[in-house]
Amino acid sequence: MSAGSLYERHRAVLPGWVALYYERPLELSHGEGRHVWDVEGNRYLDFFGGILTTMTAHALPEVTKAVAEQAARLVHSSTLYLSRPMVELAERIADLSGIEDPRVFFTTSGTEANDTALLLASAYRGGANQVLAMRNSYHGRSFSTVGLTGNAGWSPTTLSPLQTLYVHGSVRTRGPYAGLPDAEFTAAAVADLEDMLAHTRPAGVAALIAEPVQGVGGFTSGPDGLFAAFREVLAREGIVWISDEVQTGWGRTGDHFWGWQAHGAAGPPDLLTFAKGIGNGMSIGGVVGRAEIMNALDANSISTFGGSPVTMAAGLANLGYLLEHDLQSNARRVGALLRERLEAAARRLAMVREVRGRGLMIGVELVRPGTDEPDARLAALVLERAREAGLLIGKGGGPGAGVLRIAPPLSLTEAEAEEGADLLVGALERAETGWEGGDRP
Ligand code: PMP
Q: What is the ipTM of this complex?
């Protein structure tokens, strides 16, 4: 069973859909700051952070120390007995959420956080089983969340215990309202939402779940204020607004600590789900929301491992570091620099349709040159070229999977941003030349 390369062993023992990046998959050995090393000793600038899980930095000493100390003291679940690290992290997140009289529940992943939010919203709404989700969304791939994931490439089945109604509004530059100015785009999306609700029984609709900036969907978002306008419609019917902040939380978008704040006029969402970066790689997810909804469930605790002390210790140390060093401001400043560099290069490259995003969440949409068609194969080629140059990025997002995703740890320095931009532009140029020469993966 253990003969062959690690990749062969991976293929033999894991299901085929546990997909890996790169023609020659990478085995990482260690990390430090914004860099990781593979087992062959090659160093990479990490512009994806394990899909936004490395929020502050690799091997951050503060987090490592907190984890080691807690692991040496007690590794346990946080159900049944009082847990200081869990209560302390819940208090910090409650304070930061902006939600009035909040309660926090910890899970082990973003998927489970969304599952829990749906369960709560449905219970609060008397067992309602319809959910509004955005087209091109990603909320997980468990049985309940997969049906909300409106990006077909990421949704292996349409079977779902919930009935999902997909709303338009998070993709600005494609689709029926492409090119409309902000106010008209928002008005058109609101009219669509109202029309959809007019054709259903609103009492059967539990929630709207939406990412403020779509992550897997290619770092795309509607105009600022869109969800404030949606919320007015939802509030008329008492429908719960769930903001899925799994990618947009913790200052990632630079201008705001949470993505919903770009829609500030609406006030905070009823429920907010989080995961990914808060544990800096340790598995923490959770929901924070209004007590009235959070308490709607008539059940005992619903997770054994959610809130376990070692992950909570990581979360506390990581969040403390983030706030103390104001990494949100760093994301805004260094993100703007990085984006400027990429935008300037994009003007020369026919294959780049758009550079977009905010803070350190930047998408580069690639198209087949001379057309408007997303080009997933070209994105895969750029990914390979970037790796050869010592840069790790994300791919595959967005309609047609043609978007490169850039989301480095939030402590990225200006020098690293400039270096990474140069490496990426070089990879784009080499891929463009390769493309013309027929060098397609
Ligand atoms: N929501 C969003 C917005 C995500 O990006 C993801 C993960 N890509 C999830 C939920 C699911 O999180 P997890 O993979 O931790 O279950």
A: 0.99
Work out which ligand 1 atom sits closest to the CA atom of 245: 3
> Has residue 69 been placed in a domain?
no
* CATH number reported for the structural domain that contains residue 339 in this entry: 3.90.1150.10
In which residue are the tokens 């023992």 written?
13
Q: Are 289 and 120 in contact (CB under 8 A)?
A: yes
Same domain? 347 vs 297: no
Give 363-400 pLDDT, tens digit per residue: 999 999 889 999 999 999 999 999 999 999 998 777 78
Asked if residue 426 is part of any domain, the answer here is: yes
Buried b (16+ CB within 10 A) or exposed e, 357-392: bbbbbbbbbbbbbeeeebbbebbbbbbbbbbebebb
Separation of 440 CA from ligand 1 center, angstroms? 30
> Could you tell me the CA-to-CA distances from 216 to 28, 136, 149, 195, 203 in Å, in that order?
23, 8, 10, 27, 30
- Domain of residue 172: give its range: 74-325
Q: Is the CB of 151 under 6 A from ligand 1?
A: no
pLDDT < 70 regions, the chain: 1-2, 156, 158, 434-441
Whether residue 64 lies inside any domain: the answer is: no
To test the pocket of ligand 1, the residue of 138, 151, 311, 405 to mutate (highest count of ligand atoms within 8 Å of its CB) is 138
Ligand 1, atom 10: closest residue by C-alpha: 139
- 180-224 confidence digits (pLDDT tens): 999 999 999 999 999 999 999 999 999 999 999 999 999 999 999
Atom from ligand 1 closest to the CA of residue 216? 5
Question: Contact 207/121 with Cβ under 8 angstroms?
Answer: yes
